[in-house]
Every structure is written in structure tokens, then in C-alpha cells.
Amino acid sequence: MSHKILVIRLSSLGDVILTAPVYKNLKAHWPDCRISVLVKPAYAGIVAGMAGVDEVISFTGLRDALRRIGAGGFTHLLDLHASLRSFLLRRLSAVPQVSVYRKDALPRRLFVFLRLPSPALERHNVERYLAALAPWGVPVRERWLSLGDYGGQVRNGQRPAANVLILQTSFLGDTLLTLPLARDLKSILPDCRVTVLTLPRSEALFQDSPHVDEVILDDKRGAHRGPFGAWRLAQELRRRRFDLALIPHRSLRSALLARLAGIPRRIGSSASAGRWLLTDAVPFTWLMHDLERNLALLQPLKPDIRPRPDESVFVAKDGKAGAAIAARLLEAGVGPGDRLVGLHPGSVWATKRWLPERFAVVARGLAARGLRVVLVGGEGDRELCGRIAEKSGALDWAGRTGLLELKALMGRLALFMTNDSGPMHMATGMGVPTLAVFGPTTRELGFFPYGAGHAVVEKDLSCRPCSLHGTKTCPAGHFLCMRLITAEEVLGQALAMLGVPAGA
Predict the structure, then answer these.
(1) H-helix or E-strand containing 258?
(2) Are 300 and 153 in contact (CB under 8 A)?
(3) How far apart are CA 330 and CA 324, in angstroms?
(4) CATH 3.40.50.300, domain 4-136, yes or no
(5) Contact (CB, 8 A) for 485 and 365
(6) E strand intervals along 132-261
(7) What is the pTM of this model?
(8) What helix, strand, coil percent values describe the chain, rounded to 5?
(9) Which tens digits make up the pLDDT trace of 205-249?
(10) Which of 316, 243, 255 is nearest to 282 (CA)?
(11) What stretch(es) of the chain map to CATH 3.40.50.2000?
């Protein structure tokens, strides 16, 4: 039997993007099926580029939609909208096999107006969409999105950009995940000049990149502080006459700077607080890694952009500080043949820090099997790492490595063990096997270790995630997301990744 499937989703852009895993699962179960999607005209180009979609039907009215559905000979209808309009469409079209996703509209309204919680609200929309496949016996194999799972649109007559500004003034991890954006931009526009606006603490990362031609500092706490400081910075950017701004940072300030600088084309995220200041708003989804969300900003320049085979490795190992780090290690008794494991127990957010005494247990377990252990972190991690080093005998380099020195040290590691943090992205970006401990944050936020060869230790709790970045204290008061993760299971995972028998 030939399956001709009609999917109805007549909602906002964000909801439309989240249907992408549905098509992948349908095609995986029925490879020869034909999938048509009924969608608002504004999003037809986005859906047309989705993996698994064979046809897009633009909804211009009930009568026209019924005519086209009748002519399509559909065997299955999947209603992912669940409104009065979609009810009429499925009843009047008389498609034999129909499945409707569970919208749970009433619990949502009760929560919005009366703050009444409900277990129904704990399910992500994607899970609701995928559950609608169960009546047809379609198993769920894919739950995530990747770059290329949805399409992009390019404006005709847009001249190529020669002078490009990338604005990224966020945390270290966000900054690191911007490096592939600069690299892939250069592959699309080889002759363009790339300038990055960033914070002083991230300057060295971009200066060390072969894909960045110039770095401009945004001194938010000094010369560029407040509205007048931002205005002065915008005028400095205006004098440089940029053609294009790529804005991975989703703040209002970043979008406003690009607008005040008079940059004619400004590409950012549909989730940006300054979306109304952009000329191109690229769809945003939490179900995609942040690295690929950044690369999606290139879709208006190259609609068919896909991740490169080596996309996960974007930080070069041959750093300028390599010789100095090798000498420091030798002085500390770590020879070229010793296997070295890096531990990063710190975080800006207290709830993202796994228990320090358990880091010490892991460090002792690694040392007992002949591995050398080095603790890394910033100035604020000195006291924390000092306590762990005292209990484990590990080398304590917290506050003793700048960004380029940390990068050089990473190139020497056999394994990097860390909380959800910026250095995690540096390690994965260099292809260093990385073991991450996740507590309040989850994969759904898009900042998990990217690429193959990495692992995450976490506990499945209904209260996770409790925030985007973490908090100072556990909102629920129990901190089970970290307390339930034992030193034994983390050590066991680390040894498995290192290829060392647990009983060695």
C-alpha cells in the first residue's frame, strides 16, 4: 500500500519548526511514503526545505484547501494543529486514516489564568506531535533537530557582503560556539572581511582564529557602559561601513547596536529580544545544538547549508602556548608519555557544580590507575580547586591558565571531565573526549557536548531543566539533580572512555 500523508500545522513559525522530527520518523518507518504539509504561506519556504517533506500546500482558505486535499488522494491525515479549522478540514476531507495530536488547551488556559499546574504541561510539544504517530504504529527514532532539517529563504538581488560584523558578547561557551560561524561564513564568502565584536575576556579566542580578520571590544562595564556608551560604540561601528551583521547573541542590545550602526542587512534569531530590528529573522528552536543554531544564521546566504563532516572540531590544537604548557607539565612531573586527565569542577552558577568531594574521589580513582590529573578553572575557582587538590593530590592549575594556555593544555588531554560550562565547548571543539556532568540544565537547551566521542552523566528528573543557565540555589531545595550522581558512576564512565579496566 502506498502511503500518502497530509500533515496540518497552521500555527506560528516556532510550532512549524518543531514538526521536523515527525517527518523524519514517518520516512524512517515508511521510506516510500509521500508527505504533504498544509501550512501558512509565510512558512512555505521553511517547510519546503525540511527533511522528508515532498510537497508544501499553502493554506489560502478553507475551500481551496479542501479542493487540494480532495485531489491529493491522501490515505493518512495527521492533524498537528487541533483547532476548529483543522477539525473542519479533517471531517470534510474524508481521509481514511486520521490521527490528531493532543493539544491540552484547557490545562494551558487554567495554568495561564489561575496558575493551576497539570502533569499535561510537562510534555514538550514535540513529544505531543510524536505521540500522534502511535495510532499508526510508527516508532519514534528521532526527537532532535539538526541544521538542514528545515529550509531557508534567500532574498533575490541581494549583493554579496564584503565587510561582515559578527556580534557575540555573551558567556565563554556561547563565544566558542560562534567560531564555526566565522569559519563557515568564510567558506560561503571567501573574499569577505570578518570582524567580531566581543567582550575583552573573549578577545584572545577570536584573535587566535584564522577565520577572523579583526576583533573589536565591547567594554560593557567601562567605556561602552549604559545607553551613551552603547551609542558611542554604534557610531564607531558605523564608521567602518559594514555590509552585513550576523547576530548570534539574542539580546536587544546586540540587535540595537547593529541597527544604530547603519548596517543594511542584519541577520539574527527569531527568538532575539530585538527581532523587530532585524532584516532577516532565522527560525529558532531549543531542539538544536547552539552551534548549529549559530550556523543557521547563514541560511539567508546559503539556504541549503548543512553541517560539515568535521563541524564538531573547530578549535585548532597547535596553539602559541603549546611549548610553554609542555614545559610546565614537565616541571610538574608530567612527562610526554603520561596520560593526562583534566577536571573542571567550577561554574559561574552554583547549581551547575557537581559536589567537590565527589570530584576528589574521581581524581583519586584516576590517579590510582596511573593517570595524571590536572584541575583547571578561573580565578574564582581557586579555593574550590585547592580543596579538591588537597584531598586528591591532583595538580591545581585553577587561575593559572589564560584562554590560549587552556587551549594548549586541552590539546594534551586524554579526557576532559567537567560541569556544563564554557571549557566543555573548548574541549569538544578540539576533539578531546569530554565527560560532562549535567544537573539543572539539559540537552534540550542546546548546549550539550557536540560531536562524537563524548558523554553526559545526568538524572532524569521532572524538575529539570529549572533554568537556562543554572541558579545560585536549587529552586526545589533538594539539589537531587547533582546529589543523585555518584562518584562511582562518573569514575566508571571516565575509565570506560579512557579504555582503562575498572579493576586495574
Answers:
(1) helix 252-260
(2) yes
(3) 10
(4) no
(5) no
(6) 163-167, 193-198, 214-217, 244-247
(7) 0.76
(8) 40, 15, 45
(9) 898 889 999 999 998 888 898 889 999 999 999 999 999 999 999
(10) 255
(11) 4-136, 163-298, 322-498
